[in-house]
Amino acid sequence: MPCGMNLELGWEGLGRIVRSKDRSQDVSAQDEIHVDVKLLPVLPEDQMRDILRRVLEADGWSKREDGSLTKNIDGVVAQLEPDGTKVVLRAVEKKTVTVSERRGFDKDTSDEEIDKQLDEGLSDQLKRATKAEEDALTRAAVAKLLGAEPSLREQLQTALNKVYREALEQRAKQLGQVEWVKEQGDPGGNYEVTLVVKA
After folding, report:
1. Does the predicted TM-score (pTM) go above 0.85?
2. Residue closest to 87 by CA, chosen among 95, 79, 96
3. Looking at the predicted structure, is the pLDDT value of residue 11 above 60?
């Protein structure tokens, strides 16, 4: 009964055998964009950073044990550093590369020699395939980053507008009673808050 799982075929008339061997390797590529988060000193810096963290958590960012905040944006991870001064947008791509080497040998060739020759062929193939895959994964990571960066910047700007509004209200309350607040913005990213305080 024939079996498709044979890795060694013998041809008695020719005195040759065919052997094959596979090898796999995990390949990954990573790239990142750093975005500085600068805050105007409406309040002391630690208070401004605390407001920023609260606003981002309310917008779906998750707090981690080290004090950083993370959010998945368009398939990549954005992370506000623990000190709140920078957001790192990081894309990681992974894949497993598998190559095969198949050769014919005289039937008198030792198993050690067969393994040695197959391993040499696999090593060369794996180097080439790994390099090609790393290049492809790097391009994919960069494309993801470039696609997610505008969304990150938009979300950060919206968060900063909320931070400034809250900080200005807190500052205004230190000066007197806030009678009313008016805010307006435009699609160009300009944002204006007007507060009237009764002293």
Report:
1. no
2. 79
3. no
